[in-house]
Backbone:
Protein backbone atom coordinates (compact mmCIF):
# COMPACT_ATOMS: atom_id res chain seq x y z
CA UNK A 1 0.00 0.00 0.00
CA UNK A 2 1.39 3.37 -1.03
CA UNK A 3 1.64 6.40 1.20
CA UNK A 4 -1.36 8.10 -0.45
CA UNK A 5 -3.59 5.08 0.06
CA UNK A 6 -2.39 4.84 3.66
CA UNK A 7 -3.23 8.49 4.33
CA UNK A 8 -6.62 8.18 2.65
CA UNK A 9 -7.45 5.19 4.85
CA UNK A 10 -6.43 7.18 7.94
CA UNK A 11 -8.53 10.12 6.75
CA UNK A 12 -11.57 7.89 6.31
CA UNK A 13 -11.10 6.45 9.80
CA UNK A 14 -10.69 9.91 11.33
CA UNK A 15 -13.84 11.16 9.57
CA UNK A 16 -15.77 8.19 10.94
CA UNK A 17 -14.37 8.85 14.44
CA UNK A 18 -15.39 12.52 14.21
CA UNK A 19 -18.91 11.60 13.12
CA UNK A 20 -19.26 9.15 16.01
CA UNK A 21 -17.89 11.65 18.55
CA UNK A 22 -20.29 14.34 17.32
CA UNK A 23 -23.24 11.96 17.66
CA UNK A 24 -22.13 11.02 21.19
CA UNK A 25 -21.63 14.64 22.31
CA UNK A 26 -24.68 16.15 20.61
CA UNK A 27 -27.16 15.58 23.45
CA UNK A 28 -24.83 17.16 26.01
CA UNK A 29 -24.25 20.18 23.77
CA UNK A 30 -27.98 20.66 23.17
CA UNK A 31 -28.63 20.48 26.93
CA UNK A 32 -25.87 23.04 27.57
CA UNK A 33 -27.26 25.43 24.96
CA UNK A 34 -30.79 25.10 26.38
CA UNK A 35 -29.49 25.83 29.87
CA UNK A 36 -27.68 28.96 28.63
CA UNK A 37 -30.79 30.14 26.77
CA UNK A 38 -32.76 29.90 30.02
CA UNK A 39 -30.01 31.52 32.10
CA UNK A 40 -29.67 34.52 29.79
CA UNK A 41 -33.40 34.80 29.02
CA UNK A 42 -32.88 34.56 25.27
CA UNK A 43 -36.12 34.63 23.31
CA UNK A 44 -37.05 32.79 20.14
CA UNK A 45 -37.24 36.15 18.36
CA UNK A 46 -33.57 36.78 19.13
CA UNK A 47 -32.67 33.41 17.61
CA UNK A 48 -34.96 33.70 14.59
CA UNK A 49 -32.30 34.76 12.07
CA UNK A 50 -29.84 32.10 13.22
CA UNK A 51 -32.01 29.16 12.23
CA UNK A 52 -33.20 30.45 8.87
CA UNK A 53 -30.79 28.30 6.89
CA UNK A 54 -28.98 28.91 3.68
CA UNK A 55 -29.13 32.11 1.70
CA UNK A 56 -30.36 31.67 -1.86
CA UNK A 57 -28.72 33.22 -4.89
CA UNK A 58 -31.86 35.31 -5.43
CA UNK A 59 -31.55 36.73 -1.91
CA UNK A 60 -27.93 37.66 -2.61
CA UNK A 61 -28.86 39.34 -5.90
CA UNK A 62 -31.71 41.27 -4.27
CA UNK A 63 -29.40 42.44 -1.51
CA UNK A 64 -26.77 43.58 -4.00
CA UNK A 65 -29.40 45.48 -6.01
CA UNK A 66 -30.63 47.25 -2.88
CA UNK A 67 -27.07 48.03 -1.85
CA UNK A 68 -26.25 49.41 -5.30
CA UNK A 69 -29.46 51.47 -5.26
CA UNK A 70 -28.47 52.98 -1.91
CA UNK A 71 -25.05 53.99 -3.26
CA UNK A 72 -26.63 55.57 -6.36
CA UNK A 73 -29.16 57.49 -4.24
CA UNK A 74 -26.39 58.75 -1.95
CA UNK A 75 -24.34 60.01 -4.92
CA UNK A 76 -27.34 61.82 -6.43
CA UNK A 77 -28.15 63.61 -3.17
CA UNK A 78 -24.61 65.05 -2.91
Residues:
Amino acid sequence: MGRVEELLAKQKQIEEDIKLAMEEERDAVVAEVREKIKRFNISATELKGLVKGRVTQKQVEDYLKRKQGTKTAAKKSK
